Amino acid sequence: MPDRLRVMLVDDDPFTRMTLVTTLNSMEFMVVGDVATAKEALLLAAETQPHVAVLDLDLGEGPTGMDLAHRLRAMLPSIGIVMLSTYEEPRLMGFNQHPLPDDAIYLVKRTVVEPEVLGRAVRMSVDQSFREGTMRVVAKDARGVKISDPQIDVMRLVAAGHSNAEIARRRSLTVPAVEKAIARLIRQLDLHAAPETNQRVAIAQAYYRLTGGVSARR
Question: In 10 A of CB 59, how many CB atoms?
Fold first, then answer.
């Protein structure tokens, strides 16, 4: 591993990028650039040849961080990937996400309680020996939500405010099938909504907790 890793940052939030640049520079990484979009990231990677890319999963409209990770690996096969996200796991994006590239690190933002958590994740992405120690908060693949991909999609659509009829149309289901899917979600997520709480509201609240409070993409 090089003495000083070159790192690129991709996040659509300027404040987050500024914070990450400061954090990584303080740990003696070389931040070669920070950009907001996948298009800018590919140009930056071609120009700077970074050792590691730190990517947000949700980059707004257009390609996701997961799409970008695979494009970067095709361009630079040895590049380390650290996916930094509010989402508890990539499937919550609801877009049939690609799996993480081999040896990529998925890091949930709320677990970054000190700068060294991010620093170790960056090093781990290119040197597996750094998996030793206290990096329990970092997982190669985060699939902690024990529901299926179709159920996650129903959950996302409920959180986005769609009616059962609209969800049925989008998912090619019947309305009764959607109603049964919602009832199963209530049981599997152990929500136990109070009588005064609408089941759909309970599901939406659970989705927002798992995604770090961000709005559901439609």
Answer: 22
- What gap in Å lies between CA 152 and CA 145, rounded to an integer? 9
User: Of all helices (H) and strands (E), which one includes residue 98?
Assistant: none
Cα–Cα distance for residue pair 189/148, rounded to 1 Å:
12
In sequence order, the 6+-apart residues with CB closer than 8 A to the CB of 203 are 155, 158, 159, 182, 185, 186, 189, 191
What is the side-by-side order of every strand in the sheet holding 6-10?
30-35, 6-10, 52-56, 80-85, 105-108
| Domains present along the chain, CATH in parentheses | 6-131 (3.40.50.2300), 149-210 (1.10.10.10)
CA distance 185 to 36: 35
- Residue 129 CB-density burial (10 A; 0-12 exposed, 13-18 middle, 19+ buried): exposed
Backbone φ and ψ for 35, nearest 5 degrees, come out as -140, 170
31-62: pLDDT as tens digits: 999 999 999 999 999 999 999 999 998 888 88
Q: Greater confidence, 50 or 177?
A: 50
Buried b (16+ CB within 10 A) or exposed e, 87-126: bbbbbbbbeebeebbeebbbbbeeebeeeeebbbbbbbbb
Give the separation between CA 122 and CA 54, rounded to whole angstroms. Answer: 8
Whether 207 and 92 have beta carbons less than 8 Å apart is answered as yes
Res. 72: pLDDT tops 90: yes
**CA angle 149-171-181, nearest 5°?**
60
- Does residue 136 surpass a pLDDT of 50? no
